[in-house]
Amino acid sequence: MNTYSYICSFSYIWTIIVCCVWLLDVIYYITEKRFAQPAISPLGAKAGVLFVKKEGRRPVELIIRKRKVIEKLFLILFIFNLACIPFVGVNYDLTKYLPDSAPSAQALDIMEKEFTYPGMGRVMLQDVTLREAKAIKDQIAKVDGVDMVLWCDTTTNIYGSSEFIDYSNIEDYYKDGDAYMDITFLESDSSDRTHEAVHEIQSIIEGKAWPDHQ
Q1: Are the CB atoms for 181 and 138 separated by under 8 Å?
Q2: C-beta of residue 172 within 8 angstroms of C-beta of residue 181
Q3: How many C-beta neighbours within 10 Å does residue 97 have?
Q4: pTM of the model as a whole
Q5: Among residues 81, 122, 165, 194, which is most buried (max CB within 10 A)?
Q6: What residues contact residue 70 under an 8 Å CB cut-off, 6+ apart?
Q7: Phi, psi angles (nearest 5°) of residue 92
Q8: Which of 133, 192, 132, 205 is closest to 214 using CA atoms?
Q9: What single-letter DSSP state applies at residue 211?
Q10: Which domains does the chain have, with CATH numbers?
Q11: What do you get for the CA distance between the two ends of the chain, in Å?
């Protein structure tokens, strides 16, 4: 269980406690104030009254009397939650919410084990020459988390004279001054390593990428 799960658990438990106190106060009010006979079973009513009644006071009154203790407890939990904020991450993989017994989760595990399931992306650069695009590609390829970058330089000598380059053969990756690159990452799309690599790639292509890619 990660830190975020612990924080959520504390919040749920605190909410449940408040709801239980309110419910017990209602039970106490019904059994003690309105009816001579309990509206619920005698055993349940007696247990409820014994639990919520202390020194002849209702639970709400006890909360008021013990407000200092409750405030200290709330302050401790608040400080703990603040300290945990830096450790709370974002889960981009929605399959993590599936139980391990779910058929779809088992199928995804098998696919990832047998065929691997790396993250993939595409970068589009605007107003660049072939050599400028090649230099950016080399920088992206060195980013931690990147497996490979596919571009037209694998099949075409971009350092040669433009008169000897058949642009019709590379228009899938370079056309009208715009360059397109396919990136394969080492880990899945939801991996923290992949997201860090994406942020680093964004800083590399800043100013050269199309607005949707920045």
Answers
A1: no
A2: no
A3: 9
A4: 0.54
A5: 194
A6: 63
A7: -90, -10
A8: 205
A9: G
A10: 3-87 (no CATH), 116-213 (3.30.70)
A11: 34
Only one residue has tokens 């058949």, namely 166
Q: Are 213 and 205 in contact (CB under 8 A)?
A: yes
d(C-alpha 134, C-alpha 154), whole Å:
11
Q: Which two tokens stand for residue 98?
A: 């599936």
- Please give the full DSSP string across 46-83, using - where no structure is assigned: HHHHHHH-BTTB-HHHHHHHTHHHHHHHHHHHHHHHHH
- List pLDDT tens digits, range 149-183: 999 988 888 887 777 888 888 988 998 889 999 99
Q: 172: helix, coil or strand?
A: coil
Residue at token pair 């660049």:
128
* Helix residue ranges, H only, 85-189: 103-115, 130-141
Over range 12-35, report the average pLDDT: 64
Report the alpha-carbon distance of residue 123 to residue 210 in Å, rounded. Answer: 9
Report helix, strand or coil for 187. coil
Q: What digits encode the pLDDT tens for the residues 175-197?
A: 888 999 999 999 888 788 898 99
**Nearest to 4, CA basis, from 99, 193, 12, 191:** 12
CA distance 84 to 9: 13
Report yes or no: 89 and 4 within 8 Å, Cβ to Cβ: yes
Greatest Cα pair distance, the chain, in angstroms, is 102
